[in-house]
Specification:
The chain has five helices and six strands; from the N terminus they run E-H-H-E-H-E-E-E-H-E-H. By secondary structure, it is an alpha/beta fold.
């Protein structure tokens, strides 16, 4: 299904960021979500918390689908700003240092793929974290480029 993606900050997402929980499951549950019109969810046979893959010109990411409380808005989905949304937005800033977070054309499909934690997502997309550390969800591992471990 073709959709338009808009992103923005959600209250619950901001709560977990201020709490310092960005590497934990609670942040994933609040931020790795596509809020959709119920009619669009029905077209794809989706229930709340089913997983969807969103593909744009710039990337693809797996998120939870959830019913939007701001409906009706068929064909438009809302994703909280953050690591998952950043995968599918344009890096173009048009000389203002801020990417375009609204009006992103994308396609969504139902999937059985897992919604990744921030550390897993950053490792997959940017090769940023060492996932051999079992406590990574509690404490990030920062390495300088060129450091071997």
């Amino acid at each position: 299904m073709k959709v338009i993606v808009n992103t923005g900050t959600s209250i619950i997402q901001a709560f977990y960021e201020k709490k310092g929980s960005t590497l934990k499951n609670e942040y994933r549950q609040a931020t790795a979500v596509a809020f959709m019109d119920l009619r669009d969810m029905q077209k794809l046979s989706l229930k709340s918390r089913d997983k969807i893959k969103i593909k744009s010109e710039w990337g693809e990411v797996v998120l939870y689908a959830d019913v939007s409380y701001d409906a009706p808005h068929e064909g438009i989905i809302f994703i909280p700003k953050g690591p998952w949304a950043n995968i599918i937005i344009s890096p173009e800033t048009y000389c203002c240092n801020v990417p375009t977070y609204k009006g992103i054309p994308a396609e969504i499909t139902k999937t059985d793929e897992e919604v990744l934690l921030v550390s897993e997502l950053m490792n997959k997309v940017y090769n940023k974290y060492n996932l051999n550390n079992s406590n990574l969800s509690e404490k990030p591992l920062y390495k300088k480029k060129g450091d071997e471990q």
